[in-house]
Amino acid sequence: MPENVSAQSLPNICRYPCVPCMEPCQWSCTHLACDLLCHELCDRPCCDEPCKETLQCGHLCLGLCGEPCPSICRHCTPGFKDTISLLMMDEFDESDRFVELQDCGHVFEVSGLDTWMHTEQSGSGTNGISPKQCPECRTSVRRSLRYGNQVKTKLYQIEEVKKPILQFDITNQGIKLLQRKAYDEAVDKFVAAIDSNRENFDAYLGLGTALCLQSQFKEGIHFFQLVVQHSPLRCAINEIDTGKAFWGNSFLPRTVTKVRNVIQQTTACQPPIAREADKKLAMRALVQWAKALSNMTKFDAATRACEIVLKEEPSNKEAKETLQLAKAERQSRMEVVEAMMKDVGGRGHWYQCPNGHFYVVGECGGPMQVSKCPDCKATVGGQNHAPAEGNTHSTIDGSTYSAFSDRVGLGRFNHDL
């Protein structure tokens, strides 16, 4: 409970959010009690009944019921001066009551301190988000039962300020892990940042990049697309043909399984994302999207993504390089395809693994054995001329169906359907 726990006993680093205390609230007296948990705003009013305790000096306590007895006495401390009202002890009425702040030990007449604690101004006189402070020494008030709701309200505000700092910190940790090629750990960090804030577009971009670096291009594109979709460049999505996505299947590796819930939630827009991504960030997402498309041999779409960026920022170096690489890769890939067509005797022998990597089936063009993709270790090939689950015929050589389907007379039939 913030008003009962000293700052030294809290285990977290200051910038990290505090874990809410789930213990029962301790604020109670003979007249009133709070029935809520420690971290919740109390549901009881303050008790203004006088304290019935007797001090060690033998005189009656000047405090309030249920509050710690203040260390002053009407008879034994006549030199006491209240720094809010500036009244001396002999100027107060017999009915006046006092409260001692446990964090610093200063004592004040209750009506003056109530007014001070309920005002929105901080000790510096500004409407800033800062803990309530003692009006005499400016010590932060954290352990007052009477003013627990004011203390908690300020602490809640401070926790809200911490959230974007934490998200930035976690996202940066993910970026550093990417640089160290620790992709699984990076995915964990980006997912944690997104769980903390569904509008953390930097984390979406990082997560998409981490997935693509593990050859999970279609899953990565989902997050690049999400960033662009919530940016001023959202219209660009309709200009980029990416084909069908197939995330969520059983063949996906461990890293993609971790983000399955994130994919489902963002696809369903639950919870909805209200904030807009920065245009600069959207252009970075488009460049990463283009790189993923190139790896999927969708060179036309990759080219278009780069062109959209260069239209907005003609000097964008990364977009220029990605565009040049896409064109060069397309030319190189076509040369390889043409060479392989000569070796296997025509079109229709190219397939793609579940993650988009290419391979060739020789002889009749129908897969008869299974193996592992050298790039992502997914199952490739098939049995009895049927591709394994997630494997598809590729049109990279200009064919519309596999060579085996054509030979047995199914290709034209399936194509017409």
TrEMBL record:
All residue ranges annotated as the RZ-type domain in the record: 328-410
Principal location class: cytoplasm
GO biological process per UniProt: immune system process
Gene Ontology terms: cellular component: cytoplasm
Cited InterPro entries: RNF213, TPR-like_helical_dom_sf, TPR_rpt, ZF_RZ_dom, Znf_RING/FYVE/PHD
Domain of life of the native organism: Eukaryota
Any one GO MF annotation of this record: zinc ion binding
Compartment annotation: Cytoplasm
Keyword hit for Hydrolase: no
SUPFAM superfamilies in the record: RING/U-box (SSF57850), TPR-like (SSF48452)
Keywords, in A-Z order: Cytoplasm, Immunity, Metal-binding, Zinc, Zinc-finger
Alphabetical list of Pfam families matching this protein: ZnF_RZ-type (PF20173)
Protein name as it appears in the record: RZ-type domain-containing protein
